[in-house]
Amino acid sequence: MINESALNRIKASLQRIFSMKITRSTFREVQNAIINATGDNKDLVNDVFESFLSGKVKDGLAKGKALDLLNSIMDTYSIPVRLSKEVHERGEFVNIITSDTLTQADRIAFLNRIRRIDGEEFHFVTDPESTIHLLNHFLGRLQELDKSDQTKEILASHHEDLVKFKERLETAMK
Predict the structure, then answer these.
(1) Helix (H, G, I), strand (E, B) or coil at 1
(2) E strands along the chain, which residues?
(3) In terms of C-beta density within 10 A (0-12 exposed, 13-18 middle, 19 or more buried), how is residue 4 classed?
(4) CA angle, 118 as apex, 15 and 42 as ends, to 5°?
(5) pLDDT tens across 58-117, in order?
(6) Sorting pLDDT into bands at 50, 70 and 90, what band is 174?
(7) Which CATH number applies to 4-90: 1.20.58.1050, 3.40.50.720, 3.10.20.600, 1.20.1290.10?
(8) Lowest mean pLDDT segment, chosen from 5-19, 69-83, 149-163
């Protein structure tokens, strides 16, 4: 069971940690804060982490005022803790891609924006030729998945998306 003193240390640490931008190391800071506040009690550490990651206080983790404080901390920090874990594990993966069409005289280009899970954004411009070059590159990467049984399963799990991609490509070629 966790006491109010440990919870107050966790709360103070989380306030400091999440007053800054979430980075790849933020989740490690959260881990250290919880470990330091709970005195290296592995079961308690696991129960606190499980609560943060599930968004629900584990039964028997706290009572009375400590439970009220823990619920308050969970309400405030459960989502940021989960996000910090995702950034730690998948920060460099693509979160969203958007494009705007730019025209000047008789030329067309696309202003592309890629935002990663960790919040980093990249902007680059492509014309139709370089857009086709990118599509060819990524199509080649997908074709490589067909070379082993393990990666064939990954490709097969996206069959519907690939069929839609093919249909869109056929429409673009008309």
Answers:
(1) coil
(2) 94-104, 107-116, 121-126
(3) middle
(4) 55
(5) 999 999 999 999 999 999 999 999 999 999 999 999 999 999 999 988 899 999 999 999
(6) confident
(7) 1.20.58.1050
(8) 149-163
Read off the DSSP letter of residue 158.
T
What residue ranges of the chain are covered by domains with CATH 1.20.58.1050? 4-90
Backbone angles phi, psi at 51, to 5 degrees: -65, -45
Give me the sheet containing 107-116, strands edge to edge. 94-104, 107-116, 121-126
Amino acid present at 130: S
Q: How far apart are CA 91 and CA 73, in angstroms?
A: 25
**Mean pLDDT of the 39-65 span:** 92
**What is the total residue count of the chain?**
174
Total Cβ atoms within 10 A of residue 29 = 18
